[in-house]
Amino acid sequence: MTVARMMHVLPVEAYTSQEWFDREQAQIFSKLWRFAGFSEDISEPGQYLSVQAGLNNIFIVMGRDRRLRAFHNICRHRGTQLLRAVGKTQKAITCPYHDWTYDLEGRLVSVPEEAEEFTGLNKNCLGLKPASVDLWRGMLFVHPEPDPGSIMEWFGKVEPHLGPHKVEELVEYPQAATSHDIKANWKIVVENYIDVYHLSHLHSGTLAMYDHARAKYGFVGPHYAFWEPLAEFYARDVEKNAPMPLVLPKDQLGASVPMLFPGLGLGESETSWSTFHVIPLAPDLTRVETRTRVKNASDWEFSTQEWRSGAFWGKHISGKYAVEELGEAEDPMTSGDFMAEDVYACEQQQKSLKSPYFEVGASAEQGESPVRQHQQIVLDFLEGRR
């Protein structure tokens, strides 16, 4: 008899098989609120963006009344997707296939050759199928249902556990935006993000500025909350040591790094506020897109802070290994980049899942407890217990 290979709570197949991936897309990512962007991404009538939310492609558009609306990106004629990822329409939305046209409020207003080809067509019944859009902490979210309830019903209980950042006072730093295609299952990526045990080991040289031993963490419903203070050697003169201008007062310094189910991390630190958007692409492929906000300050203030803190970071931040140890100048373990270290670890773990000799060993009672809890939450959603 074959013994099931497990990742503590979930079978290994949950991380490798197309069947599991399809179930998660249908029962998790297609039924919950999904991050779409920042409020300023849509600031004038006709501007839109689209987002893949599980099996649903949904777009948000600002109407002539400056109200945001969300619709399924599906023409009511033959189902062609109407809009691309991001852009600005004129006064209407026209399908590229047969030129069926909708106004910005989703009503079907024009059908070419209607009298000759569509006798008795009732355009009032063929408007775009509505979805939902809501705004929370400066972020846009979509939901496939037209009336899912307030987004606060989904995020409200975890909000008190998030950072005290005044997101609306921060400005986006476009140069910090990144996109990584990681050759690993989305759960591997999320579990790495919430694995407290690895922080002082994999990131011993890159995240030493935080006191991992004093971290506070746990789940609030399906959402993971995490906070840790600054390490004493960093906090001692943080106004000088910080790589960028501070965005929090001294009595609130530290890092809040929650993971909002099913895949939106927030990096809320003393100098910035970032989104970490986990997008499943295949059983063994995940895209992670990040966007960052910083203090609304002058270039001079940023340059001055970088100059003041340069010696500190040169002394205290390094890769997991020295170049001399590995002999590879561009190895992720010598990069001094904690994201590169995480990507490497996730991809190496995914590779091992294919081996018939793979099995997980003992699990850290505290530091890896979020990993086990996340696996149980995924299982609960798939089995209809949430």
CATH superfamily of the largest domain: Naphthalene 1,2-dioxygenase Alpha Subunit, Chain A, domain 1
Q: Describe the biggest sheet? A: 6 strands, antiparallel
**How many E strands?**
21
Structural class: alpha+beta
CATH fold call of the largest domain? Naphthalene 1,2-dioxygenase Alpha Subunit, Chain A, domain 1
CATH top level of the largest domain is Alpha Beta
Q: How helix-rich are the residues, as a percent range?
A: 10-25%
Q: End-to-end distance, in Å?
A: 33 Å
Strand content: 25-35%
Named at the architecture level, the CATH assignment of the largest domain is Alpha-Beta Complex
Q: DSSP helix count?
A: 10
The shape, in one word, is globular
Overall average pLDDT: 94
Query: Which blocks of ≥5 consecutive residues have pLDDT under 50?
Result: none
Kindly give the count of domains.
2
Rg computed from alpha carbons, rounded to a whole number of angstroms: 23 Å
Structural description of this entry:
With 386 residues, the protein is an alpha+beta fold. The chain folds into 2 domains: 117 residues, 3-layer Sandwich (Rieske Iron-sulfur Protein); 223 residues, Naphthalene 1,2-dioxygenase Alpha Subunit, Chain A, domain 1 (Alpha-Beta Complex), CATH 3.90.380.10. It contains 10 helices and 21 strands. Strands 13, 14, 18, 19, 20 and 21 form a 6-stranded antiparallel beta sheet that branches. A 4-stranded antiparallel beta sheet has the order 6-5-4-7, with no helix packed on it. A 3-stranded antiparallel beta sheet has the order 3-12-11, with no helix packed on it. α4 packs across α9 and α4 packs antiparallel against α10. The longest helix has 18 residues. The radius of gyration is 23 Å and the shape is globular.
